[in-house]
Amino acid sequence: MALTAAFSRLPDLTDLAPRWQALEARADASVFLRWTWIGAWLESYAVRPELLAVTDAQGRDVALALFGRAMQPRLLGRSATLLLNQSGEASADRPFIEYNSLLTAQGMEAQAIAATLKALDRRNDWRTLRLAGIPPGSTLLAISARRKTRTDLSPVYQVDLDTVRAADYLSLLSANTRSQIRRAIKDHGGALPTIARATPADIDPWLMEMQALNQGRHADNAWDDAGFRRFAATLAHRGGDAVELLRLTDDGGTVGLLLNILHGGVAMNYQSAFAAPRGAKDKPGLLCHAAAVADYAQRDLRLYSLLAGKDRYKQSLATCEETLEWWQIDRFSPRLEAEALLRKILKRPVSA
Questions:
Q1: Among 157, 148, 158, which Cα is nearest to 326's?
Q2: Which domains, from first to last, does the chain contain?
Q3: Quick one: DSSP state of residue 292?
Q4: Using the 8-state DSSP alphabet, how is residue 127 labeled?
Q5: pLDDT digits (tens, 9 = 90+) for 105-157
Q6: Which residue of 128, 201, 314, 323 could cross-link 81, Cys pair, CB 3.0 to 4.6 Å?
């Protein structure tokens, strides 16, 4: 099938939404490529990425994606950069896309990506392409380039809920993690926290509570950013059954809140906020995730995912994992060649 890939200015979102959702109905795509996520991102930030549309001979969409354009800093100056489903602005990319690719009609992935790579190759206005959070072995990496560098490899720690249903969850964890959770359960009255799911009226106050609980906890706190707060609220309000905001409590009050995304039998913990520990050995975060695992295991889901991140607590809770990759793809330019040589001399990695 002959396909045509073309870039254009971003349409009005009221026009793009039904077009995106129509293709989504024919796709087997990650939640990060669906309008629940993409629409919330575009509405929450003042970004105007280009639209890539891959169409068939009848003009019907076969694949859609967004490409941000930015002059991104490099070691020896700025490089004209395209970014898949990102903007190139650090604040606007704070939602942190994962399982990234094109939104593609099922069965047309290889042809759509081949057409996309040809269209990218024809463009002469970029020197660097950034691919964030793509699965290993993505055919997007088949693009012709001077240099392809994997800048990061992140585990995606998960809990296999089928295994949890067949055995006690704590028995699947290390002795240290098991002990920490059991001690926390004891400190919280001898049981896991009770889970409540937000109604539409609960969403805004519960998100404000998440913001308050995260205040001062991190050097670079996403909840300090108004755009991110809009994004989280849009996601929670418009996600329907695909997004859950959970509040976990016991007799002592709030233990924590979890903002989770559900798709394809997987519950993904996207954001969290926890009350201060009630004692020296209290672990409210571990307690809340253990409660979520127990709840989702009862609901017949396949996996509880903690999404990408190298945090020790994610590893301690997991029973399995997969990986995502971040790539920097450079075309030839004298400046980038000089940078590569300098990095080699200084033994300085690309991520530095």
A1: 148
A2: 4-146+331-346 (3.40.630), 156-323 (3.40.630.30)
A3: H
A4: S
A5: 999 999 999 999 999 999 999 999 999 999 999 999 999 999 999 999 999 99
A6: 128
